[in-house]
């Protein structure tokens, strides 16, 4: 591939019910700093290293007309076909903090067969958030 065609991962965009509420939740529950929340509350961004976590309303004419209407789960027995993972040096403490600050507990942290300590929570829109440790590559 030509060097001018190599991508850089820039954004993960969450389509949410309330942009300001989601930005505040992720900042408080997971420890991110707010980079931007526009005055209309139709776009918000968190600082997350080399990429940006962004939030925009579930339904908006700019994207609904072009790419289709965002579908959301109808119950806790369903979920979006994506999850996000945040890595922490102390997964237990981060998990406890997230739950104390509004995340819905799904599964407490435990060591998985692939060697990563992982716990799961849900955000206010039902998005599954994996909270994990770094995974050491196998030799």
TrEMBL record:
Pfam families membership: Glyoxalase
CDD domains assigned to the protein according to its UniProt record, in alphabetical order: VOC_like
Keywords: Dioxygenase, Oxidoreductase
GO molecular function: dioxygenase activity
Matches recorded under SUPFAM superfamilies: Glyoxalase/Bleomycin resistance protein/Dihydroxybiphenyl dioxygenase (SSF54593)
UniProt name for this protein: Putative glyoxalase/Bleomycin resistance protein/Dihydroxybiphenyl dioxygenase
Organism expressing this protein natively: Lupinus albus (White lupine)
């Amino acid at each position: 591939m030509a060097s001018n065609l190599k991508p850089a991962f820039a954004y993960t965009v969450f389509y949410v019910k309330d942009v300001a509420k989601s930005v505040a939740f992720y900042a408080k529950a997971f420890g991110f700093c707010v980079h931007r929340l526009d005055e209309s509350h139709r776009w918000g961004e968190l600082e997350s290293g080399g990429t940006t976590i962004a939030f925009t309303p579930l339904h908006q004419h700019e994207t609904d007309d072009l790419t289709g209407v965002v579908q959301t789960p109808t119950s806790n027995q369903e979920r979006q076909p994506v999850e996000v993972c945040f890595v922490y040096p102390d997964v237990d403490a981060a998990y406890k903090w997230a739950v104390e600050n509004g995340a819905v507990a799904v599964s407490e942290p435990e060591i998985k067969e692939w060697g990563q300590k992982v716990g799961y929570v849900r955000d206010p829109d039902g998005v599954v958030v994996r909270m994990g440790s770094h995974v050491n590559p196998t030799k």
